[in-house]
Amino acid sequence: MAWHVLITKPKFELKVAERLTDLHFEVCCPTRVEIRQWSDRKKKVTVPLLPSMVLINITDKERAEVFTVHGAVRYLFWLGKPAIVPSKEVTLLQDIADKKQQVLSTEKIGIGQEINLEEFGLTAKKGTVKYVSGNQCWVVLHNLGYVIKLKIK
């Protein structure tokens, strides 16, 4: 079994993940809480870390079964083959989501610097800093092709 990237309709990530879990698939849809402001109020909203994507641990034989779920569109392909996400990167995404606001370090982080994420309680070993701004940094997950924004002190 391997972790595949399932593309969903916009704003359907959580619904697709819930329905796939009900069908007994192993699914990863990490989320974060964001404060959204309207003209009359502020509200905490749960949003996915990966927009329009759900990670699913599935065999090649079961790949077609996910399209019975409303909102599932297609699989992500890379160089003509289904994109496979390493388990350690899926675990990293789950750790980031579980800890809500992950504080990495009080040291200065520079662009291009490779940082050891195990020191901060995450199971993934390394990430590369792409951009630093104020108290935030963007860490590259190379095999997934995504950048995750983390809050630092």
Automatic annotation (TrEMBL):
Domain NusG-like N-terminal, first and last residues per copy: 1-92
Bilayer-crossing regions: none
UniProtKB keywords: Transcription
KW Transcription (keyword) present: yes
InterPro entries reported for this sequence: NGN-like_dom (IPR006645), NGN_dom_sf (IPR036735)
Lyase recorded as keyword: no
Gene Ontology annotations of biological process type: DNA-templated transcription elongation
Protein name: Transcription antitermination factor NusG
Organism: Gelidibacter algens
